[in-house]
Amino acid sequence: MKKLKNESHSFLDSANGPSLEEINNTVSIPESNSFWKNLLAFSGPGALVAVGYMDPGNWVTSIGGGARYGYLLLSVVLLSSLIAMLLQYMAAKLGIVTEMDLAQATRKYTSKRVGIMLWIVTELAIMATDIAEVIGGAIALNLLFGLPLLVGVILTIFDVLLLLLLMKLGFRKIEAIVMGLIFVILIVFVYEVILAQPNMSHLMSGFLPQKQLLSHGELTMGLGIVGATVMPHNLYLHSSISQTRKYNRKDKEEIAKAVKFSTWDSNIQLTGAFIINCLLLVLGSALFFGQGENLGTFTSLYDALKDPNLAGSVASPILSVLFAVALLASGQNSTITGTLTGQIVMEGFIHMKIPTWARRVITRGLSVIPVLICTIYYGGNEAALDNLLIYSQVFLSIALPISMIPLVYFTSSKKLMGDQFVNPKWVTGLGWFCAIALTGLNIQLIIETLS
Description:
Elements (H helix, E strand, L loop, with lengths): L26 E2 L6 H8 L2 H7 L4 H14 L4 H25 L3 H7 L3 H34 L3 H7 L4 H10 L1 H26 L3 H6 L10 H14 L2 H10 L3 E2 L5 H37 L9 H7 L3 H4 L5 H34 L5 H22 L4 H30 L2 H8 L3 H26 L1
Parallel strand pairs: 1-2
């Protein structure tokens, strides 16, 4: 990376202007010292970030992990969520203090060649995320309305219209809609887990790391959960949308206030995402442990929820329908954030601005291609799509260190962040430990897979 110079930044001095210019500095905050009023005003970006931690990719890895390994991988969900909170805190702080998103900062302090390479990897990570949304949305449409998977995949291309409509309503409305859909997902799975009556002692012991995690099967699924939980594209998203609030950007007290309440917002929303991911894994374990090989697809889970032979006395068609509704809500939520992230990454890394609708069509079109090929080649076999989804999540885990390393580096620099906002040494240490540990686990996974 280029050596950081001792300079002050304003949102006008980045190479391509403010991040997400149309919504940057648009949401007013109260002139009040009330904690709750300020928390409410700053709440919203955390919800858009949390969406990435409960998308369809999480579903197949978390429920599948519970069905195959019981409560063992709850410790992975916990550690992933704690890592996510740490990284999202740093991402929001980077955006608020420097008025650059992570893509802009990375491009500014790297060579053009490195910037383009990082852009390509990040775009592939966004595509991997989009693959999960396409598959989840298509399967949900199939379960709810009987549409063939091929038709459902094609229909997901047109969700660009949904985002364009929401953008006209204003960013605050988008945040409210996303939070509403998250609440729907939460209620559905709280209800289903209560009916499943999990073994609480086994459940609590699952939060303690176990030796079995080092074997290949558990490691693959565990890294899939990490990839589905700690999303690299969310670091770019949060560093941008944390700048949507309107405050005095030259006043250090105002900046500190923004960092404080953005952190509160992020941690509260990510706690909600952590609960939902735990519910997914607990549901898979409580109802289907030992049957993981027979429940590897969304359709098999949908059918199992209404089959007394599998789900026992709690089986009900209502549970299946609620499952499909929540799946559809999850896919649509992720669609909104994926589009915004694509715009941030393209403008930040290669300084290219194109209309939102064109960006959405291109991104979704590229993501649909491998899903269409897989659907046509395997004749609409959902198991093949689910395998594609799982490996897309493992790829996200492999791509994560490429986003983590610049983030930790930038937020640990006094020259860039200033004495007041630079990471404390213990935060920097934790950040580097997470990046190194995750990179090591990914290398181990690749070696074992190839051998």
